[in-house]
């Protein structure tokens, strides 16, 4: 039996009737048309489907869509566009932290969650913060450097205000 849910997706009100077994990932990709969260392992092991649910990084493949009712869901599209990149997006691009790009949206959202809670993370903190996200193309060095650069930029911007 379908249930009507209402939530915000990237700041926009949404309303959908969904079956109780539909995942948040399936809803976002299938009905909402946002394809940055990727469907990969479907077991919550790779992080390609990471989204922010009320500010917390979650695996969209493991969260039922009905649990998003009344909540805020953010995908990487919420962070910035081509002309106004978020520091994480900017530094991932500038430092070559993504190669094929498949893991990048989830990796950036996990990094955002980390920086929202720890604005000056150590390398160990960063490794722990992205530990749920697998990248098959890089050795994580450039990813860690990009997160460090974004943290510095965000800290300097906050300090100047």
Fold blueprint:
Blueprint: E1 3-9, E2 12-18, H1 24-31, E3 50-53, E4 56-59, E5 72-74, H2 87-94, H3 104-117, H4 123-129, H5 141-160
Parallel strand pairs: 1-5
Antiparallel strand pairs: 1-2, 3-4, 3-5
Helix pairs in contact: 2-5
Notes on the structure:
There is one protein chain. This protein is an alpha+beta fold and 161 residues long. It is built from five helices and five strands; from the N terminus they run ββαβββαααα. The protein has two domains: 74 residues, Ubiquitin-like (UB roll) (Roll), CATH 3.10.20.30; 74 residues, DNA polymerase, domain 1, CATH 1.10.150. A five-stranded mixed beta sheet has the order 2-1-5-3-4, sandwiched between helices. A hairpin with a 2-residue loop joins β1 and β2. The termini are far apart. The mean pLDDT is 95.
Which terms summarize this structure?
Ubiquitin-like (UB roll), DNA polymerase, domain 1, 161 residues, 5 helices, alpha+beta, 16% strand, 5 strands
